[in-house]
Design goal:
- The chain is of the alpha+beta class and 210 residues long.
- Helix content is 19%, strand content 7%.
- The protein has helices spanning 2-5, 40-47, 62-71, 75-78, 104-109, 156-162; strands at 139-143, 178-182, 195-197, 200-201.
- It has a four-stranded mixed beta sheet with strand order 1-2-3-4.
- Strand 3 (195-197) and strand 4 (200-201) form a beta hairpin.
- The longest helix is centred in the first third of the chain and has 10 residues, at 62-71.
- The protein is globular and about 45 Å long.
- The two termini are 34 Å apart.
């Protein structure tokens, strides 16, 4: 990241943006917030052009917190008011990201649902204007967990056939160019059934006999 930031050819109006969400991480578990544990690389993100929040509130669980971080709205507004199952009480508790709420990736790329190009979206030189978004390339790695349930004992075939349907949106459907990670919230960390690369299930994680 540093080499890109110091590259004179880089566009200063489009800085690199890195967002890291760590599950079960306490406020003072990193060095820049007073931890006794040394975390120099994370600390450098805070000191080298980064941001340290003075007031940051999570939503008590991983998937509602992810929903808020990805969309900038309360988890109920994003469709994940509790967990990633449909509680049967309306869209606030449907268990997956609502289509009418844009993700940060969609905003950076300006691929929001319903967005249409018109002449006002471009400047005099034919470039997309600011209100159209930044034209960023977007990437995500790790746990998705905002697209309905993926049972920990699900087969690879079930995951492949289910991911991407109306109630199981995937990162590549919500603004990310590339994704490598798990779609579900938990399960085996040695052979996770919902581990995917973009839109394909990764079936063999460990070599035979590992």
């Amino acid at each position: 990241m540093k080499s890109k930031m110091n590259d004179k050819s880089a566009d200063p109006s489009r800085p690199n943006i890195i967002i890291i969400l760590a599950d079960d991480l306490g406020f003072s578990d990193v060095g820049c917030f007073g931890s006794e544990i040394e975390t120099p690389n994370i600390d450098s993100l805070a000191s080298d052009g980064g941001i340290r929040f003075t007031q940051m509130y999570n939503c008590a669980r991983c998937c509602p917190s992810r929903a808020s971080l990805l969309t900038g709205v309360y988890p109920h507004q994003a469709g994940i008011g509790h967990m990633v199952y449909d509680a049967g009480v309306g869209p606030a508790y449907q268990g997956f990201l609502r289509r009418d709420v844009a993700t940060v990736a969609e905003m950076l790329k300006r691929e929001c649902p319903g967005a249409e190009e018109n002449a006002d979206d471009f400047d005099k030189d034919g470039r997309k204007s600011a209100k159209r978004g930044g034209g960023y390339a977007t990437f995500m790695a790790g746990k998705w967990h905002v697209g309905s349930e993926y049972p920990p004992d699900a087969s690879h075939e079930w995951v492949q056939n289910t991911m991407g349907d109306e109630t199981h949106p995937t990162p590549t459907q919500r603004g990310f160019d590339k994704f490598y990670g798990t779609l579900g919230g938990g399960g085996s960390y040695y052979q996770p059934p919902s581990l995917v690369r973009d839109d394909e299930v990764v079936k063999e994680v460990m070599p035979e006999g590992f």
